[in-house]
Amino acid sequence: MTKAPKKSKIEEYMCISPRDAIFEGKRYPTMSTQISAHITEVYEKIKDNIGKVIVGKSDTIDMLIVSLLCGGHVLLEDVPGTGKTVLIKSLAASRSCEYKRIQFTPDLMPSDVTGTEIMRKDEQGNMQSEFRRGPIFANLVLADEINRATPKTQSGLLECMEEIQATIDGKTFKLAQPFMVIATQNPVESMGTFPLPEAQLDRFLMKGKMDYPNHSEGVDILARFDKFSPLETLKPVVTAEELVAAISELPKVYICREMMGYITSIVEKTRSYPKVLLG
């Protein structure tokens, strides 16, 4: 009796496999082996590369890559010093795409995020308006300590994250593809923080934590960073074109109506469950 091939983590998350999927005893086609192999290859390349820097945290890395492939955004919440920023930098270094970091502070303005119109002289000495793009126009944006900025500045990300565009002074600019925002925040109990409103939290596909490393992981971290930071030598393993191609193949995943009903039932339960404030 031959054993079924072992699924990778990405196949478990996204129900992608060379074989048909089985749900409630019924067999449904998923997608072609060729497409499945391409997405899995992109996933494994990125995860293996991040693993050269980050010790452990496999579930958190899976969450980031799945969100990336799904075109979603991620919110990481934990105390300072747990490696949130290093993890995001490792993801950015694994892709040959533009990366920008925004350090959110109480005095940060929305125009510091999206960009602004400035006046400058042309070669003839005439004043001309010129749009200076903000860091939000990068492919991957790290919104570091997002809850340290005021709600006014936080709201500057709403349109960008939902519609992949930014409107400045009445003009609409499309953002780069692929586009992803990964935000970090300190626990709301920390001093000097502004809790994210529900409208902002709704823009994130997933929310996760880093947590402290265990003893063995702590020793491995000290050994790995003893002489130099491996992040400094990390090279891209996936091009922007490969990433866009993998993302464009995801809609080909077949989802049966029974599965849609199952997902809807879970969502409906959150609206009536007494321990959930807002479903």
Total strands: the figure is 13
Proportion of residues in helical segments: 25-40%
Mean pLDDT: 81
Beta strand %: 15-25%
Query: What string gives the helices and strands in order?
Result: HEEHHEHEEHEEEHHEEEHEHEHH
Poorly predicted runs of 5 or more residues = 10-19
What overall geometry do the principal axes of the alpha carbons give?
globular
Describe the structure.
The protein is globular and about 65 Å long. Helix content is 37%, strand content 20%. Residues 10-19 have low confidence and may be disordered. α2 crosses α10 (240-249). A hairpin with a 2-residue loop joins β1 and β2 (26-28). By secondary structure, the protein is of the alpha/beta class. The strands form 5 sheets. The chain has a 5-stranded parallel sheet with strand order 5-8-11-3-12, covered by helices on one side. The longest helix is centred in the first third of the chain and has 18 residues, at 33-50. The protein is built from 11 helices and 13 strands. The chain starts with 8 loop residues before the first helix and ends in a 7-residue tail after the last helix.
Question: What would you say about this model in short?
Answer:
The protein has 279 residues and is α/β, with parallel strands linked by helices.
